[in-house]
């Protein structure tokens, strides 16, 4: 597994399709605001659904003129599109399906054994520098309150 970027490190590149197949690039995502990158293992799983719904319920805090949220998993775009439609997510879900896990691996959060991302969360500033991070293993729920604190601290 690649090392998890530390605070102060340059954020690894993102170049992934969203749930609609639209290509999303890191420089565009952070052009004029911070980016909250939320890696999650699987669409439609209970913990992932709960975490992303919590972000969705607080979307005005997380998605505004200072912060953009993207969710990233190794699921194919079709699964992410169906999940986003079912749950009503109003932020991009990026597919790290092919080359499988490239982005998760570059952020040090790919579980090579399962082929899924672990629960890594990164706040990236407009200069593409990691300003905050939190990583939890499979089955460990991410404390959403810590995401709130990180965003409020901007």
UniProtKB/TrEMBL annotation:
Keyword Oxidoreductase: yes
InterPro entries given in the database record: AhpC/TSA, Peroxiredoxin_AhpC-typ, Thioredoxin-like_sf, Thioredoxin_domain, Tpx_Peroxidase_subfamily
Gene3D superfamilies given in the database record: Glutaredoxin (3.40.30.10)
A Pfam family: AhpC-TSA
Domain Thioredoxin per the UniProt entry, residue ranges: 5-154
SUPFAM superfamilies assigned: Thioredoxin-like
Transmembrane residue ranges: none
Keyword tags: Antioxidant, Oxidoreductase, Peroxidase, Redox-active center
Record protein name field: Peroxiredoxin
């Amino acid at each position: 597994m690649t090392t998890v970027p530390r605070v102060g490190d340059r954020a690894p590149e993102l170049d992934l399709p969203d749930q609609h197949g639209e290509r999303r690039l890191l420089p565009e995502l952070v052009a004029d605001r911070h980016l909250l990158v939320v890696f999650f293992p699987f669409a439609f799983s209970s913990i992932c659904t709960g975490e992303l719904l919590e972000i969705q319920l607080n979307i005005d805090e997380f998605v505004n003129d200072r912060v953009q949220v993207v969710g990233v998993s190794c699921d194919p775009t079709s699964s992410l599109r169906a999940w986003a439609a079912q749950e009503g997510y109003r932020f991009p879900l990026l597919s790290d399906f092919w080359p499988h896990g490239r982005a998760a691996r570059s952020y040090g959060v790919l579980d090579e054994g399962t082929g899924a991302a672990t629960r890594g969360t990164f706040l990236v500033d407009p200069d593409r520098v990691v300003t905050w991070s939190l990583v939890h293993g499979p089955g460990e729920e991410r404390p959403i309150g810590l995401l709130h604190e990180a965003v409020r601290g901007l």
